[in-house]
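FORM 7B - TANDEM STRUCTURE REPORT

SECTION 1: FIRST PROTEIN
SEQUENCE AND TOKENS:
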Amino acid sequence: MVADSHKVTFQGSQGDQLAARLDLPIGRPRGFALFAHCFSCSKDIYAAARVSKALTEHGWALLRFDFTGLGASEGDFSNTNFSSNVTDLVAAADFLRQDYEAPRLLIGHSLGGAAVLMAASDVPEAVAVATIGAPSDPGHVAHNFAQHIQEIEEKGEAQVTLGGRPFKIKKQFLDDIRSQNVLQAAGSLKKALMVMHAPLDDYVGVENASEIFLAARHPKSFVSLDNADHLLTRKRDAFYVGNVLNCWVERYLPESEMPAEAPQGKEHAVVVQETGTGKYGNYVVAGDHLQFAGEPESVGGDNSGPTPYDYLSAALGACTSITLRMYADLKKLPLKRVAVTLRHEKKHAEDCEECKGKVDHISREIHLEGDLDDEQRARLLEIADRCPVHKSLGAPMVITTVLAE
């Protein structure tokens, strides 16, 4: 399902407007999640965007935002610290609670993971917290500017380079990260915890994950991210994180909030059942294959899948393509590929020479690739009209309907 992404803003801990992106699923969200990005990163980093996409495909809504002074957010980064990041997170949760729905899941990447552990107690609606490559001590980030620490201590501030960009770090930032106790926060979490970390993470060592996990109380889980890098730059790693989080957090949601399960397929039958989310959304199950059907927004739906008429056209198009392939293989024709474009509409007799009165009209355009001569192309066009679905649509049809017991 394709998510809808909106730019939003809210007031941060220091009164500045923080830039955020709210990624929404098709239909009614099963819940809201809040994502905290890594130190000096932004809401648009690959890890944040891809984890969000994976979760929205499972029906979650997710808010990711730029901390004060970072990305597109207002404010002066030099006046921020770890504590202000934590209060920015609480402000983001307040924004969701007021304008949408309080977050049920808190996710933090790298230093953002330490921040969500600290902020979790101020988000009572959250049932689960997940950290990804998080340090057990916020002071860990000081290694990013270790060569400047003495200057910061002596002069009160220093200009440093982080990720190729200049930042001013003040002594109050150092004092703040040194005063934080993330492990204590983990131990008093009172929410389900997922610790995700790559054993070969050369930025935040896996021993940090061990310390967080051991400090926390049950229910807690650990997932190894195998050979993923710290920033989850590979698409498959970020999507793996999102997919695992979706499966894990379901265990901690009330049963009433669980989405309706897709129906079981039946032999030689297609099963269509409402999804229970959104408007006009339906599961379409054919054997082992699951699809979705819906209606566009123009007629009151939420575009959760192809329309019933789209599926009708798809049936004709697929049958056409398969029939042409079977014929070409049988006759050993040099047909490389078939593409069929179909459009369905209602037409009146005056608009269609073949029609009498108002009828359904499907236009079918067939594209044939391959070293075919004119005679072979003409023959394939004739064969297209012989596909079984075409014959069924053109023949009288009887549909019987009964109520299931």
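SECTION 2: SECOND PROTEIN
SEQUENCE AND TOKENS:
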Amino acid sequence: MKKETPLKIRYLIKLLSNIVNGLINVILVAFVPTALGTQAYGEFSYLFQFFTRLYGFISAGSPTAFFTKLSANPYRKNLVGFYLFVVIAILFVVFLSVYLVNVLGFRNIVFPDIEKESYIYLSLLFLFLTFLFDIYLKISDAYVLTTSVEIVKIVYKLVYTISLIGVIQYFYFDLDIYLIFNIVATSLFLIATSSLFIKKGVFSKEIFQNLQFASTSKEFLEYIAPLFVTNSISIAIGFFQIWLLQKFGGAEESGYYGLAYQIGIMSFLFTSAMTQIITREFSKSFGEGDIETIRRLFLRYVPMLYSISAFFSLFVLFQAENVISLFTDDRFLEAVPVVMVMSFYPIHQTYGQLSTSLFYATERTKKYRNISLVSQTIMLGLSILFIYFLNLGAVGLGLTMVIGQLIGTNLQLVDNSKYLNMDYLYLVRHQIISILLFLTISYIASLFSMFQSPLVNFLFSGVVYLGLVGVAIYLYPDVLSLKKEELSRIMKKVFRRER
């Protein structure tokens, strides 16, 4: 194979793609919820989360097994062909499941407060294409085609956004139209990426040669077997949580939670850019028996990305009302409390995703299963308490996600610290210091929200926040997992380029 693109370059390209994607999500949040209204947007949020979990349940962790094994040995092209057949089987099972729910008369139980049947089947197809979209990104990362595919993704997202705004502004727009638009747009991306894969030799006749269904299936089952129980329980609890909110809170509460989640994941740009890339590096190093490199990568990037996520997320905490006023209208102002709660979610999601990737890459799936069962049981109890007994609606689900994430990720971190011989207490101190630092600075910056315009308040507070954070990092660079000497070298390079 040709020489690999360096890790930093792949990360920067993926980061650029994520930044573009994040800016586009900002634009979409400003248009879509308002155009659909609280009821329809709530229905979309419920269906989106429902089918995301359903595909996750039916796929039973196989996408992770596929990515890990392909990353460890990209020459095994038959894995691509094998998994394409698996993907088709997953679609069939999901469609059959939903069809039986309708035929047997359970639609109102499984899909409460969903106005039209067409929403269900269009969401099913849209989320299948989204599932396939993610598989394509895994293939691109495994074959180190990140740069090419992310460029295609950037172009696709820009065209998608301009076209969608045009549809909203100049044509009739409802949930049916929105789902059909997404189905067409995602299909075009998959076609363009397939052409690129054919050109690069990833998709060729070789992928369907020597498929070895029996032995490959056995290999996949051995990998995902320890995960099956925990995935099943995790997704079942996820189903129950969103169903509980939809049932007892209604579509509007689902809409508030969906809006808060969309705003929250904007803070996850930097971390999500690294997740699959670093998983690939973990898998590659583990295959070579190089545990020291894994340890170095973990200590270098995970605390840094945690702090970057906290930097963005905790600014949103005290700007929730300004953010909602910028993006939507008065119908969504009741979402302010859940946006504040969910601003904490992306912070520990950083540790969650990157710690989980280490479990997968090092094939310690039994350990991951045991830890996940504990954290999921806690989340089940919290969701019943907050949503059913305390009737907190979207805020209740937000609290469940944040507290459950905090507990689960730290349980994972304890085990990963032992495996890599890291100082767990150092990582805990880093978590606490980072949150307290950015929380304090964010609160101080919010005191400068003294104007009538939400936009001016947001921008002025942002400038103050950025300046104070810059000073804090200069005085305490360890918050970004940097030494003072490293920070000095970086600053010298920056100022040298400016000249």
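SECTION 3: OBSERVATIONS ON SECOND PROTEIN
The first helix runs from residue 7 to 59.
The chain has one domain: 7-498.

SECTION 4: SIGNATURE
Preparer initials: ____
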